[in-house]
Protein 1
Amino acid sequence: MQQITRKKLGEGVGLTCVSTPKFKRAVLRAALLLPLGGADAAQRAALPHVLRRGTVTLPDLRAIGQTLDELYGARIEVSVRKEGETLVIGFLSDVIDERFARGAEGLTGKVVRLLCELLYNPYVRDGAFSPDYVAGERANLLDRIAAQKNDPRAWAPKRLTEIMCEGELYGQSALGTTEQAERITEKKLYAAYQRALDEAHIELFYCGGMQADAVEALFAASLPARRADKLAQLGTKVIASPKQDAPREVTEELPLTQGKLSLGFRTGGNCLTGGDPIAFFMFASIFGGSTNAKLFMNVREKLSLCYYASAQFISLKGIMLVNSGIENDKFEIARDEILRQFEACQKGDISEMEMESARKTLTGAYQSMLDEPIQLEQYWLAQAVADTLQPPEERIAELKKVTRERVIAAAQQAALDTVYFLKGAAQ
Amino acid sequence: MSKAYSNLNEQMQTHTLENGLRICYVPKEGFSKTFAVLATDFGSVDASFTLDGTRYDTPTGVAHFLEHKMFEDEDGNALQKFSETGASPNAFTSQTMTAYHFSCTERFAQNLEILLKFVFTPYFTEENVEKERGIIGQEIGMMEDNPGWQAYVGLFEGLYRSHPVRESIAGSVESIAKITPETLFTCHKAFYSPRNMALVVCGTADFDEVCRMARQFSPHESPAIGERHYGERRDTVNQPLVERKMQVSQPQFLLGFKDEPVKDGESRLRRGLLGELAVRILCGDTAPLYNELYEKRLINPYFEADYSLYPEAAVAMFGGESRDPEQTRTLIEQEAARLAREGVDPALFARMKKAVYGTHLRTLDDPDALARAQVQAMFGGEDYLDFAALFDTMEAHDMRAMFARWARSDRTAMSVVRPQ
C-alpha cells in the first residue's frame, strides 16, 4: 500500500519518499543535520527562524504569507529538534493534494521550490542577513530559552537529561545557551549559515500521492550541487551503564502547585543501533507505556498518586525516562513505588497477558503510524539519523517474535542512573 | 442515509436509532486504523439543570469527574479491556461535550462493544469516587501550573459574568470535594440518554453491523434530558482585564472578542467557518496585522488565533507571549474597528478563504479530528462534510458584519499572566 523509497540526491543529501494515494495532503521536510551542541549551537537554533523571514524573491513575512495563502494555506513551519546527538534544523510543510482544489495544478512543486529557496536563497544584504530579522529572532531565541521553565511537565525531563547526560552531547540543548544567543549578529550568523551548508547532511522527506521519481525531480531541480569533503561526522554515543556507582538524586524548586518527578535509566546498550531494541520497547511498554502498564495500574489507579506516570524509551540515545506529576510530599512514596515496579519487571514478574497486551499496543501504534504523515516524518527522520532505514512493517514482524525471556533480559540490563525531583515551593 | 461528497472524494452514512442515538460512519479507504467516538452533548457548562421538575446545581467539574468514573464497571476498568485488544482508548471533556473514543487496527467489533457497554453503564461507589478524587486532584494541580490554561480561564472570567463557561472544565479541588456517587448518577441520568448522544466511526467498518451493535448495547428507553441553565445573558463583558501572577518568563496574554451566540435557525457550522476566517483575516499568521505585530516584536511565533462556539456564547481569541500585551491589544482592537468600518479587501478575502478551505481539507486525513468535528456538527443537526458547500456561501460582507459586532464598545476582555 505504501511505497517507501530511499534516494541519494547528491553528496550528503538523502530523500525518503512515502508514496500513497490515501491522503488528501502532502507532508514535506527539508532539514539540515548537524552535530548537537558546540560553539554554533545558538546560531543554528536561530538560523531557520531567520531564513523563514525572507528570501531573494519573497523578502518579508508579508510576501511569504501571501504566497502560502494562495497555495491553499500551505504551512511551512520552522523545526529545531534533537534526534539522539544530532541537531535537526529546517522546515516542515504540508499542502493539500492538488486533486482536491480547482486551479491547484503544480502545488507540490511550488512548495518544494519555496522550501529550497528558504534554505538556499535567503534575503541577504552586503554579505549578511537583515539586521532587523536577526535582532528579532535573537530576541525570540532568548525568550524561548527563558520560557522553557514555563512548562514544568517538559522542564523536569529536560533538567533530568541535562544532569544525567552531563559531559555527553545529549545533555546539551538544541537551543544553545543564553550567552551564545546574546552574541548572535547578522554577520556572524551568516558565516555560521555558510559553515552549516558545507557541513550539514540534508534530509528530505515526502509523504503523499506522488511517486518517488517525480518528487526527486522536483527537489533535484532546486538543490545546488555540493562537495563532500566538509561534511560533518554525525553519530550518537550510547553509554550502556550509569557512570557513577550509586544513582544520583537531585531536587530543585520552582513556585508550582504540583511536583514533577523524573527518573532516568541507562538501557545496558539497548538502542536503535545495538542490543535488542524491540525487546526493550516491549519492556518499556509493560513498565509504563499504556493504560495496562504497571506504572498506570499501580502508581495511578491503585495508589492515586498521580494523573500521569509513564515510561519512554529514547531509542536513539539508549536511555529511558519515567515522568510523573505528584503531590510535593509524596516524593519518596512515588519514587519507591516506581522503582518497585521496575524491579518487578527485572525479577520476571511479567505475565503472558502483559506480554500480549504490550505486543498488541505496540503493533497497533506502528500500524496507526502508517495513517499519520507527521508521525511517519518523525519515524523516518530517526531512521535516517541512525542510518538504519527499517520500515515499521519490519518492526511489527519483529514484535511477533519477541519472547518473555528477551523482555526480562532487556529489563535486567537497564539501571537507574538519576532521580530528579522538581519540587513545587510554597507560594 | 448515504451522502456522497464527490468534490472531496468522501462519503458518509448516517442513521438514527429508535432510541434517538445518532450514528455516522465515514469510510477511510486505505487507512490501517479505525476510530470510534461515542459522545454526549454534555460538557462542563451544563452543571445546572432541571430534571423531572427538580433543579440541580451540581459542583463545577462534574462532567469531567463523570468522564473519569465512567471507565469503571463492576467487572473492572474499560481502559484495561481496551489495552488487551491493543486498542488505544481515551476520553475528553470540553465545555460542550464529553467524548469517549478508541482507535484500533484490529478487533473493531470487540472494542465497539466495550465502548458502548461502559458508557451506558454507570457504576459509582463511595470508594471508587473517593479514589478518583486523588487522581483528578493531581490533574487539576497540573493544569494550575500551566500558564496557557490559566490565561484561558482568566479570559472567560473577564468575558462572562454568570455563564458557566467561566469555570475551569475540571473544577477545583474544593468543588470536586462535593461530588458524590449520587451526583454522578443524576448527571448520567440527565444527559447520557441515547437521544442526547452520537456515535461516529471513521475508518473501516460495516455500517449495518455498527448500527446493529449500537441497538443491542444502548438502552431501549430514551428518557427526557435535563433542561440546562446558563444564567442571565449580557452582551457586554464582565471585566475588561483579568490578571494573574505565575512562574513565567514573560507575560502571556489572551484577548477575547465577545460575539453574539448562534441564533435559532442559524447554521452553527457556517458560523464556525466564518469565525475561523475572520480571526485569520484579523490576525492569523499570514495577516497584515500579524506581520506588523511580529516585526514590532510584540508577538512571537507562539501567537495563536481561534474562534469558539459554546451554548449561548461565542468568542474570538488571540493570544500568546508579549512584552506589551496592552499595546498588542490596542492594535488588534483598532484593526477590528478598521475592518468593521472599511470592510475586507476582496483580494485578501479571496486568498484567506482559499487558505481556510485548505485547512479543512487537511482535516479529512485525520480520522480522529474528522470524527470529533462530525460529532460536534451532529449535535447541531448538521454534517461536517458540508463545509465545502458552505464555503461557496461565505462573502466579504459576512466578515464585515462579524467585525462590526466585535468592534462595539465593551466587547473585549484580556487576561494576562505576568511573571511573579
Protein 2
Amino acid sequence: MRFVIIKDLKRDRSMRPMINYILAFTLLFLVFTPIVLYTSIGLDESKIHTTFFGNEEEFIDPITPQAFLEFVHTQIFLVMMSMLTLSAVFARVVQSLHVTAILCIVNSFALLQFVFLLFSYYLYESMIIVYLGSFYIWMAGALFMNISTFLELNRAKKL
Amino acid sequence: MQKNYNLSIFFFSLFALLFIGSSMTLFYVKFGFGLEQIVTHSKSFSGTLKLLFAHIFGFGIFIFVIIHFLLFTPLKDTKTLTWLIHLSFLGGFLEIFASFALLSGVELFAVIKLLAFVTLHVTLLYALFLVQKFVIYH
C-alpha cells in the first residue's frame, strides 16, 4: 500500500465521491441537530427556560444538573467532530480569500453556543436568547460551508 | 491552506478543552472524587454498560485524533510522544476496565478508575497544550 498526496481532489475519481458522501452525512447531522434540540431542550426561549428551570403552574420539574451535563457533553463531542471534518474539507476544497474569515466565524459561534448554554443554565437565565442566537448563526454558517464545499467540489470538469 | 488547517486544529483544540472540562464536571457530579462514592454509585450492570458502550468508541477516536496531530510536529518519533500515546490510551482503557470491575464492589478498582481518569485527562491536556503551542508558534 502506498500513501500519496492527491493534488487535485476535484478531478480524483475516488476522493470526490467520498468527500461528497461525507458532506452528505454532515448535512444530515446539521439537519437533525435542530430536530434533536427541539425534542430535548427546545428551540425557543420559553421552552428552554421551562426545561432548565421547570414550571410550577404546569407541574414541570427542572432538568437535573447531571442530565444537563450529559446533554452538553454529548453535543460538544458531536459538534467538535463534525466541525473538524467540515472545516478540513472546506479549507481543502474551497479556494477563496474569505475561507479563513468564514472558518473563524463559524467555529467561534460553534464554540460560543456551548459557553452561552452553560452561562444560561448556571449564571444568567437571560443568556438563553444569546445561546439561541449563536446556535442559529452556527447552523447557518455550517450549512453554508457544507453547501459551498459541495458546489465547489462538483463544479470542476469531470475526467 | 496550511494556515486554514492550523486554524481548524486550533478550534478543535479549544473544543477539546471544553469537552474535557465537561467530562471532569460530569464525573464530579455523577461520582464525586471520593472512593466510597465511586464504589456505591457503580451498582447496576445495565447502567454501567449503557454508559461505557458509547465511551469505548469515543475514548479511542478522541485520543487518536488529538495525538495524531502531534505526528505533524517536531515531536514525531520522540520519547515524549511515545509516552503520551501509551499513557493516554492505557488511561482510557483502564478507566473502562475499572468501571466494569467496580461492579464487584472492590474498592481497589475505584482507586484504579480514579488514577486512570486523572492520567487520561492530564495526558490529554498536555497533548492539547503541545498541539496549541505548535499551531500558534510554528
Protein 3
Amino acid sequence: MTETQLFPTQEIGSLMKPRWLLQGLKGEPLNQAARADLAAWWQRTNFVPEHDPHLKKLLKGESAEVGTAAVRDLGALFLLRFLEASGLDIVYDGEARRVEMYEYPIRQMGGFDFLGHVRSFENKYYLKAASTGEVELKAPYHLDEFDFVRVHAVRPVKIPVTGAYTLADWSWNEHFLKKQAGWRGRKARRAAQRELIVELARKALRPTLKALIDHGADNIQIDEPAAGTHPDEAELVVESFNEAVEGLDAKFSMHICFSNYRTLYPAFLEMKKCSQFLWEFANRDTDHKDGYEVLELFAEFNDRREIGLGVTDIHRDIIETPELIRDRILRAARILGDPRRVYVNPDCGLRTRSLDVAWAKLTAMTQGAAMARAQVGGGAA
Amino acid sequence: MATIDLSLTGPFPRSEALVAATRDLDRGRRKAEEVTDLYRAATSEVLALERKIGASSVTGGLLANQDLFRPFVETLQGVSIGPLTRWFETNSFYRQPIVEAVPQRRPGAWAKTLWLDLLHTAKLPPKVILPGPYTASGLVDNRTDMDRLDFAKVWSRLLADEIRELAGLGVKVVQFQEPLLVNSPPSMDEESWVLEAYAPLAPALTGLTSLVWTFYGDGAPVLPLLGKLPVHIVGIDLADTDPADLREFARGKGLGLGCLDSRTSLPEDPREIARLVRELEGRLSPASIHLGAGAPLDLVPVGPAQKKLHVLPEAVAILEHAKNPPSKHGASA
C-alpha cells in the first residue's frame, strides 16, 4: 500500500526504546532478557542481515565492542523496520535517537536553563527548562537522524519536529517575563509568551526546517501537543506556525492531541501552509461519547485539509480490533465527505506501550485501514 | 487589622529522588514498599519545610497523590478510573473518574492514605485537601441517573462523612479545591444550586477551619458567590485575577490570596505581594488573610517551588514590620 491509495497509514511519534538499545547505549553487556528481546524482534523484522557483525556481537551481549554510535544506528534502523514491517505506509525511526520531544530541541539552543522535572501525569515527568536569555540556535537539529532514515527507509518518510508554541509553553519564560513591570498576571504572561514563541519560531524552528528541506525532507509534521492547552491562544499557535514555515516549501502537517479542537477555529484557518491535522479520536467514540462531531468543523469552516485520524489509544494496552479501526476510518470519511482526506495513525506516539503492544496495535491498524479501503472500493486517492 | 497567615494550598512537587524512584517503580526496578518509604521520608521533609516557613497548618505535600481525585476516589465504591484528561490549561493530565453508581465510601480507607501519623509529628494543625463538589461534579464522567446537582449533593455528603471521621483523627483544617468555580463558573441562575450542593457539608465543618480554594480562572466575578459558601476562608488565584477587579467581600470571611504562580519559575517579589495584600486589605476588609500558591506548586520543580514558598514569610515579615515598626530605641536590648 502506498500514500497514493486511500487511507494511508502513518507513524506519528515515538516508540519505546528496546532494552537492548538502552543497555547498549550505556555500553553495558546486554543481559539475557535484552538479548532474547533482540533475537525475537530480529526474527520478526529482519532489520539487519543475519550476518551483520554488530548484530552478532549484540546477540552475544557485547555492546561495548559494537560502540555507542553503531548501537544507536541499529536502534534507529530497528524502529524504522518495526514501523515498516507493521505495514505503515509513511514511516520514521520512532524517534529512536531523541531523549524526548522537548528536551532534545531545547538542548540545541542557547538561552535556556533546565530547572528540574515536572510531572505530566502519574509517574511520568519531563525535564523543564526556563528561557533565561535570547534564543540562539547552536545548529539546525535532527539532520543526521533524518539523513539516516532517508537513506534506509523503504517507505515514504515523514519527520516529526516539535513546534515553537509547544517549546515555549513547556518552558518557563523568565527572560521575557522579567521585562514586564508590576504584578505579573495573565496579561503580562501572555505578552511575554508571544515574544518567546516568535523568537523560537524565527530563530530555531525556521532554520531547522529549512535545513531539513535542504536535506530532502518533503513531509514534515509539526508537533504541537500544547496547542490546545490555552483556548484563547489559538492565534499564537498560528503565528508560531506561520513564522516557522515562512518561505519554506514542503508538505506540512500539525499534530495536536487530547484537546478541544473547537477552540482552534476559526484561527487555524489562517495556517495556510498546513495541509493536514493529526488529531486523536480513539477515545471519542467510546462509552456513548460522540467526539467525532468535531470533524464537522471542517465542513462548517469549509476547511479542505486532510485529517490524520487517531484511531489507536496510546494509554491502554487493549488492542483495537481491525473492525473497530475500519469503522472509525469510514465514519470519518463519511463526515468529511471525501475518503481521500483521511490518513490513519495512532492517537500519538506509542512510547508508553511495550513494543509487543505497539506492534499489535499498529498491525491491527493497518489491517483496519485495508478493510476500510476494501469497503470503499480500494481506489486510488 | 486582619490576621495574616500562610500555608501550602495544594500538592508540592516531588523531589528529584522521588521522581527517579517512582520512574523506577513503573519500570519494575524498585519495590512498592521501598518507594512508600521514600514517600514518607519526603513527606517529613515537606513537613519540615512547612514548619520552617511558618505555615499555620500542614499537609505533608500530598506527594503520593496522582491527581486531585486520587487516591480519594480509589477508596470509593461505584467509581472507577477513566482516561487521561487534560488538567485545565496545563501540560499535565488527570484520570477522569467514572461514576457508575451512587458512590459509597469505605470507612477508614481514605484516612489510611493520608499518613496522619506523620502529619501529627509536625505539631501543627493537619490540613486535608479534597475536590470540592462543584469541581467534582463538573469533572467526573457521571454515568448514573443523577443530574449534576444530585451528584454534587451526594459528593458533599461523602465528604462530610470523611471529614467527620478525619476530625476524630485530629484533622483541624479542611480545604476544598474548586478550580472549576472560576474556570467554568456557574451562571447567575446556577448560583443557588452551588449553595445547595455545599449545604450538606456545613454541619461537618463545625469546629474546623475550612477553606474553598479557587485557581485557573478569574476569581473576581465569583467573589460574591464564594462569600456565601459555608466555609471560613475563600481563596482566589492572583495569577488569573486582576486585583483591581476585587471590589467587595463578604463580611466576616477570611480572604485567601494565591500569590505564588506555578506557571512561572520566577520567584515572586515579596514587596509586591505585601503591596497587594495591603491594597486588598484596605479595600475589602477581610476578617483574615491567608497567603499561599494560586494553582498548586507541583507543576514547578522542587527547587523553584521551595524558593517561591520562602517568599511568603518574607512578605508576611514586610507586612508585620509595617504594622509594628521597631521603635527608634528598641531592639538592641
